[in-house]
Amino acid sequence: MATDTLSRPGLAIICILAGTVGITINDVLIKALSGGYPLHQMVFLRALIALPLSLGLVLLEGGLHKLRTDRPFTHLLRCVLVIFSNMSYFAALAVLPLAEAMALFYVAPLLITLLSVPFLGEKIGPWRIGAVLIGLLGVVLMQRPWASAADLPASRLVLLLPVISACGYAINSILTRRLGARAPASVLSTYIQATFLIVALGFWAVAGDGRFAEGATNRSVIFLLRPWVWPAPEDWSLFVLLGVNSGLIGYCLSQAYRLGRAATIAPFEYLAVPMAFVAGV
Length: 281
What we know:
The protein has helices at 9-33, 39-60, 72-93, 98-105, 108-120, 126-142, 156-179, 185-207, 219-225, 236-259, 262-265, 272-280. It is mainly α. The chain has one domain (2-280). The N and C termini lie far apart (44 Å).
C-alpha cells in the first residue's frame, strides 16, 4: 500500500504521545471553561488561534499550494467526523467527571485496531484480538447495564456520548492514515481547524443568542446552546493556550497516523487514561 512508504514507527509513537498529552490538557481547559461559555464559542476561539499556527506549519512543509487536493470529499468526511467526535465528547465532559468521560472514550484505540484490518489491510494476531475484546467488555461494564437511572452519574445517553465520539474518532484515524499518503500533517490539521471555524460560526448564527437554551435543564444541552459572551480578562490566557494546544494536537495526531500503522499507534493513546485520572483529582 502507499502508506507503507511512510512507515516511521518511532517518530509516529513520539507524535501520538505528544498528541495524547495535548488532548489531556485540552480536556482540562474545556472542563475549566465549560461553566461560563458555550461549546461552539470555545471551538471558534480555539480554531481562530490554531489556524494561523497550522498554516505556518504548511509553509514549513512545502508551501500553501499543498492545500490543493484531488480528494476533497474524503477530506470533508474526515473533517465532519472530527466535528462530530468533538461535539459529542465535550457535551459529555460538561456533565461527567474527566476521568470517567475519557475512560469511556478510550474504546477508540480498540476500534481503530479492529478497523485497521478491513480498511488498511493491517494484520493483528489472536492475542491482540483478545485484548480488544476484553477492552470492549470493560466499556460495557462502565455503562453499568445493571444499574438504575437513579444510581448513574448521568443519563444513559450522556454515558453513551463518549463512546459515540470514539466511533467518529476511530474512523477519522483510519482516514488520516489513508489521506496521509498524499497530504502532509500540517494540511490535514489546517482542514480541520478551518472546518471548526465554519461550523462554530454556523452555530453562532443559529443559536449564538442562547434562545434554544432557554428553559433547558440538561447540562449538556445548556453547554452546547448557551449564549456567547465576551471572555473575562482572566480567561483569555486559557483560550490562547487552548488554541495553541489545539493546533499542536491536530498536527501531532495527523503525523502519528501518517507515519505508523494504526494498530501499532492506537494503544499508545491509553497514556491519556491515567493522565485524566490525575488531572481530574
